[in-house]
From TrEMBL:
<dbReference type="InterPro" id="IPR015991">
    <property type="entry name" value="TatD/YcfH-like"/>
</dbReference>
<dbReference type="GO" id="GO:0016787">
    <property type="term" value="F:hydrolase activity"/>
</dbReference>
<protein>
    <submittedName>
        <fullName>TatD family hydrolase</fullName>
    </submittedName>
</protein>
<dbReference type="InterPro" id="IPR001130">
    <property type="entry name" value="TatD-like"/>
</dbReference>
<keyword id="KW-0479">Metal-binding</keyword>
<dbReference type="InterPro" id="IPR032466">
    <property type="entry name" value="Metal_Hydrolase"/>
</dbReference>
<keyword id="KW-0378">Hydrolase</keyword>
<dbReference type="Pfam" id="PF01026">
    <property type="entry name" value="TatD_DNase"/>
</dbReference>
Amino acid sequence: MNALIDTHTHLYTEEFDEDRGLAVIRAVDAGVTRLFMPNIDDTTVEAMLSLCDAHDFCFPMIGFHPTSVDENWKARLQTVKQYLTDGPHRFYGIGEVGIDLYWDKTFRKEQMAAFEEQVNWALDYNLPLIIHCREAYPELLEILAAYKQTGLRGIFHSFTGSVEDASQLLEYESFMLGINGVVTFKKSTLPEVLKNVPLERVVLETDSPYLAPVPYRGKRNESAHLVKVAERLSEIYGIPLSEIAAQTTENALKVFTNTEKSF
């Protein structure tokens, strides 16, 4: 069995309340050996930590999602930060953070400010940054440009962009592109784009419960389905599944350096 790492899964959300334990078992049975769990906002931290406390192969991350930014974002962001600075838990990344202008541009400036603050958390605590970006590449790159020569590392989560987008993001040499079930969709342009992306810059993710790969598209996603993403990459890169598993695992551990000694 090929060992895989799901670098982005939300198994702690309410969509899994009926069978969370079984979903974890199915992931392990499928060969997914590490599950990295990005937080969403101040309302989700406890559920995430509870799941991660129960399984030593689940790694919590802390952050404030851009679509949660509202008029009270400063106070809510501070609540999240207290888990990082004052809590007993160890975190393995800052995420899920970023900018999302797809649904609503009302809090554009506030999203940018929240993102930049969390970029600095990543630098201050030497943690990888898990970046969500939707319809906001100009804003994202405007902020990141100032940090290009720093030690910032991380993942551009759920990458679905063009060859040009990939080229711009890959200029950040300590970042990987997170590839999920979208790559299996019939009309996805990702397979062609990835032919211009070295496998050494790719990590696997599910983003469960969202973006289930074919043949599960339209249903709830879960970490066990990561195998379908890896199989599609095997087809795209023309190499055995075992090599996809080995390289993407190596890539993930370059990002999550503080988990290497956990195994």
